[in-house]
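quick one before i forget lol
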Amino acid sequence: MQGFWEKLPKPFFAVAPMANVTDAAFRRMFAKYGKPDVMWTEFVSADGLVKRNREVLVRDLAYTEGERPIVAQFFTATPASMEEAARLAEELGFDGIDINMGCPDRSVEKQGAGAKLMLKPDLALEIIAAAKRGAPNTPISVKTRLGYNKDILETWLPILLSAEPAAITVHARTRKEMSLVPARWERVKRAVEIRNEVGSKTLILGNGDVRDLADAHAKAAESGADAVMIGRAIFGKPWFFAGAAESRLLPVRDFSAEKSLSPRAVALRGQESTDFPPEAKEKVLEQMVWPEGGLKAAEGEPRTFAKEAFSEALPLETRLRIAVEHAKLYEELLGDIKSFAMMKKHFKAYVEGFPGARELRAELMETSSAAEVEQIIERFLAVRYT
């Protein structure tokens, strides 16, 4: 079953599922400021849902309609747990269900789940089959790597394809390599070739070392992947995917023309490109979702600019207030079940690249509530702009 996957544009872009990152607050921020084509939950233990912490873990699966299409990701080494988790996800109305077969976390691997499943292909197939039984009306996908200790893509991928998942995300490194070496996107290209050679309809998503939306387009074009999944580059940038639909109207060759801005941002800043359709520009402007109260144009900038260039064009004042908004939403949605310390990884990303960032970041690292975050940032802004 392909479900929503077959309706997506090419290439499409997705948020990578990341533990204690792609939580409900994080996803709502992206839904507001720059929604990707597909949203993933953080990964959830299927065993925990079935046996231990169902009430708490179900909170990890909370989502809003504005996040659709949204995929629930689970990890387990027990087919029965996967079947039950998939059944629950279908009851909750998820658009898709993803099985993690690539996570290198030791606590996950001790359960025989995540990346360990690459060493047990028969069990991996049983788990996919169990998910299909549990959710017969929901497409099943898999996220994996090139291999465990070595690259086994040539044998591992055909095994997964034989189960006919709707999509497979290939992180272009082995488990042993973690993120210590550059992602090998030529292997994503090979994954596409293998898929085509066996005549499969499964979509291939590439993942690893994607810097920005322009880089995502370039990697999709070079590899032939149907989609690109982005992880670390989206930290502190809820606007990362803003205008992604319009960027597909641009020739890929243009995406290397500007080091810091995409061609869409360049065009919207008045540096007209003959390759940028006027109707695309208008559509970008019409679809922008501004922060409450609107955006102020940075000094010397036109008032209307692409959200794609937020890091360069977004006034620091607004950027920091988006960080406050994120902290408040996290506290509202998850404050009773998760530590506020989880927000620190986001502060590191929001607060960088401007004078005084280091000192402000150090202060934010000591906070334990959204109120403290707001107080510190407002004090910083008051000093900076007086």
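fyi Residues 252-313 form one domain.
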